[in-house]
Amino acid sequence: MPDRAGNAGWHTPQPGAYFLGIDTGGTFTDAVLLDARRVVVAAAKSLTTRFDLGLGIAASLAQLPAPLLDRVSLVSLSTTLTTNSVVEGRGAPVCALLAGYDDGQLEASKLVALLGADAVVQLAGGHDAMGNPTHDLDEAAARVAILAQAPRVSAFAISATFSVRNPAHEIQLRAWVRELTQRPVSCGHELSSSLGAPRRAMTAALNARMIPYVHTLIESVQATLAARGIDAPLMVVRGDGSVVNAASALQQPVTTVLSGPAASVIGACALSGRRRALVADMGGTTTDIAVVRDGQPALASDGALIGDWRPMVEAVKVLAIGLGGDSEVRYGGAQGIRIGPRRVIPLSLLVHEHPALIEVLRRQGHEAPHAAQARFALRWQADDVALARLAADERTAWERLGAGPIDMERAGRDERALARCLARLERKGLAIFSGMTPTDAAHVLGLSSHWSREAAELGAIVWARQMRHLYGVGRWALGDAVAPSEQIMATVIESIRVKLIEAGLNDADRLQNRQADAIARLIGDLAAPQPGGAAAFELRFAQDLPLVAVGAPAASYYPAVARALGLELVLPAHGDVANAVGAALGQVVQRVHMTVSQAGRGVYRVFAPEGPEQFNELAQALARCGELATMAAHRLAREAGAAQVQVECTQRDNRVSDDIDGDVFFEATVTATARGVPRTRIVATA
Prior knowledge:
By secondary structure, the chain is of the alpha/beta class.
């Protein structure tokens, strides 16, 4: 029977045991305890401490009842840090080794834009569609590239043409990397079974860029749990809503790229009791939107759209956009005001943590407008490889940041070289700036009260003067903080409204990026309740689907959004920790896709993980394909932490029938899906 969250297959839980869910987001780290009935019994929220993630995790756990923590049988972790890094274009430095790629494929992969030209190495090698080598792998060039790149990168990404048909060259390149360096490796054939070399290379590169982030997060969680004496298994939520153990997550961190959004959808359904809904989760950096039917979100057949990227990973069909409470509010050209996708530190939070800076904002409120006002640089996160690559002046700037935030206006006036170095540190993801955000506007308007309202008001005044005098935007009265904050709120609400409709287009597979914004705005205008009626026609958006809004800022924005679209709004209890709730409800699910193709008349090839196998009978090839896929899925599920595993196989054929040729077989894809509940710790109860 399904449990309250619609997760079929849960075993009878151990009485007296508890499930601990943790979500590490861009702004907050949440923790919840669920009892054996999957009911929330305690919840906590603390600021995420990016420079030392363990501090934020420990702060949240300290707020939970200690006696119940002693009876935790399973810990599950979700995170939006990987999602945020993709949306913001951040990541650890990596090198991509590409075997058999021509210049056109390289351009299509967008790897140069992602990594830089000096971090992409093209090598002779690769295979054709039947798994036959097209060129020998260039060992000498590969070894030279690996040794040259190793001191400059945190990980290697490897992709070879048609590696899903024969992974031999990727496997060999991985062996050379491991022989010559201590760096982790990401191989394209292990992340996706789909054809499309450019996107597979991009997926491998995104995976490699996230390895240090996920490694740091998991280490922080494990250390914090150990300090609390919690020795339960640790599971990590993947982008499809399933969970894997920590070791599996470290091997394929890109599969966690929508971990937080997937967990929030599961948590939102469980907390709201709604099995059909439009779910929106607004955090500090992103807003994630999904359509849920029968208690489960659909999976994206072509990969989920995350900012400007669509990696080849199985994930919930979600639209993830760079719009959150901490998104930067800035000049947007013809749009006037633009929000996101860059995340900054809200001024209200900055002064909450560094009270002395209020005097700087007070002074700047009376000075001539300058683009660097209200802009402070802070340390954000450390990456050993990135720090080792800093120039001497950048290292000095990094050390200066260790003493606290630096006023960018003063640095630009008195220490121009320092200001330039701080800007480079920010672009490298090592530092972060402060700025005006929707969170600050919410503080000014009394919709939020977590941090310093005075700092938010001063920031709004400074920001309004910048917009008006530097960019010609706005006609707010001098010294007025309320009117510009109302405009920011209106812009956020309109942006969410448009993105909800874009999510509907995405759900219907009608999302064309170049047209989506204009079409969504038109649909939103037509779907808005019309006073007095008498419209030429009426359009209903998301008819019979309630809007379930979760996330810390949801209550500030979504009532107005729901009114603008004529939707029923559900703000469930504990919705601000929905990600952590969803994390605690996941199952282990592993899918293996394997292909059989007709290589010639009466010749069939099974593209197995270790290389192609050839058969003269189609039935034998299909049977072998099903056997291999089942074995692989079962093994992966056990390795991922499943206690008991059940495997189901499905088959999708590509064949045609006509009067001349009869029944002609081209290809078949066999999918083995293994499911199981996570292994748990036996808890001693009185």
